[in-house]
Amino acid sequence: xxxxxxxxxxxVARAVLAVLALSLVALTPAHAxxxxxxxxxxxxxxxxxxxxxxxxxxxxxxxxxxxxYWANGGDAGFGLSVEWNAPEGVxxxxxxxxxxxALTLFGMMNHVYxxxxxxxxxxxxxxxxxxxxxxxxxxxxxxxxCTDKVCVPxxxxxxxxxxxxxxxxxxxxRERFDGWRALLPQPLDRHGTWEKRxxxxxxxxxxxxSTAIDAPHLFVETQDVVDYAAPQNFSxxxxxxxxxxxxxxxxxxPIAALLKxxxxxxxxxxxxxxxxxxxxxxxxxxxxxxxxGLFWTALGGAILGGLILNLMPCVFPILSLKALSLARSGGxxxxxxxxxxxxxxxxxxTALLLGGVLLALRAAGEQVGWAFQLQHPVSxxxxxxxxxxxxxxxLGFYELPSFGAGQALAGKGGAAGGFWTGxxxxxVATPCSGPLLGAALGATLVLPAWAALPIFGGLGLGLxxxxxxxxxxxxxxxxxxxxxxxxxxxxxxxxLPMGLTTLALAWLLWRQLGSGEQLLWPSLAVAMALVLLxxxxxxxxxxxxxWLLFASGLLLLVSLAGTVTEVAExxxxxxxxxxxxxxxALTRARATGKPVFVYFTADWCLSCKANEAGAIEREAxxxxxxxxxxxxxxxxxxxxxxxxTRTLADHGRNSVPLYLWYEPGAAKxxxxxxxxxxxxxTDKAKR
Length: 687
Prior knowledge:
There is one protein chain. This protein is α+β, with helices and mostly antiparallel strands. Strands 11, 12, 13, 14, 15, 16, 17, 18 and 19 form a nine-stranded mixed beta sheet that branches. A five-stranded mixed beta sheet has the order 20-22-21-23-24, covered by helices on one side. Helix 5 runs antiparallel to helix 9, helix 6 (about 375-395) runs antiparallel to helix 11 and helix 6 (about 375-395) packs parallel to helix 12. Residues about 1-30, about 285-290, about 400-415 and about 560-580 have low confidence and may be disordered.
């Protein structure tokens, strides 16, 4: 069958489907209002500000076995259209569609959604509209709903009540809309080319070789370009993806398309007529190859970055515990090897678990990044109590079996202690993103899950490498000091960094919870842990008056509970200064024509705080910024802001710190190193 015959058959099939659908509508009673795809119109802000914008979401929920269509439905479908009834001064942009799926039925390719989905549209409100004006939007939506046997054109009245106001967006709505935005294709910043050669049409899509592709598919939005049902061949030629498919139609000029990368990700792009390079290395389909260069580079960066983490302040207190344990082993070969392997296993297992949870949350649509567990107060509270318990133990307030002497099962105890110490080190290390580690973890954004997990495991391995070397290299182990009285003094000195870690976690918890009322119960939990541990130590020492200490401690807790809220609230209101990052704030700052410095930080990121104290907040740097008119924006990721998570991902990162420098008129920012110096920032300002 030639192309003209196939095109004729396709047109006839589509016409028959349309006639059948119209016949079903004609036979449907006029009063029937039920639809097989249930629409609902919601707004991110129900009080949009005059002169500003808000986003609408039209959620579409298909019944089981039914599906809706993308903007270009393919061979036998069509997208959604709305006849709007909008007040004067309100402009509604076209809907943006999430990444669709390809569905072949009876030899015809359809671009569909077989699950609930949401279309997004921006609404612009004229600046002359008076606050309080009713801006209720309504319209008649038309779409096609299908199963594998029947198609039904459907329509419904959609509406949402709006009123001109201050543009406030609730936290719940922002989170919900961010989840929908994450499913939209990302715009490609450069256009590609396409050409027709005989019966074939070829596309060249600029895409860095580091970008992973799994089960790709090219959805061509412009009609009469490709045969949708025909196979698509993908190959890579340098930094370009070459796609070849069978042509259909005589379309000329630029076309719009969407490249599906796999895992629900996609890129929207524009293709101009032009030369297309030759095909290159074939890209696998469902099994999908990954860029092995990217994988090995990221794995090596994660291992080396984990090794460097041993020098970071967030990990040092945990290392003191292991140093004490190794010194106590007295150089015994078997004990050292067992502890080293156990420590390594604990670090790797914990890093893999954290990475697995991160990937699972991301696959479920959550906007999360590395160190996500420290964005939740409950996790921070648990870690705070653990750090307090370790500090008191090091100070000798009470004893644990793992720190006692003359144990009959020292080897077994050492393995357990080594494992949990390694696990704790990996857990505490997550706030740090030292050199190489940020880029390595950022690679997990574009790698499939099976390839991303080893990257997280590599971090744990790098973290454990020093102790693995000490355990298996006698020359290194022999350099450790022999057991002696110095160990008790060393143990007490190691309580200092652990105590500082406890204070830092307490400060982080206060920063996360904010209000004194929310801080009350965590404060009581920490204080109760302090009393119980002290009481336990008194019992171990045979102090019969320990119950008096316990009772007095409880009375002290009750008396202090009332003051916690007042102090916390007073200190909280005194904190916080500077310009807060947002997309709108960045746009306004760049519009001034001045340099813009954006940095993303978190209260639990000690590397971030070190850079801020040692470079950003230095007097010389701030003076240089003032003289050059540099605008500084701060993105606080302490509580996991999804907008910041998305911004980090846009720059290939899923952790902080991230430092961006925008020169006036530059199309893209310069990503600064993760270790800043005052000289680097002042030089930037004086350019």
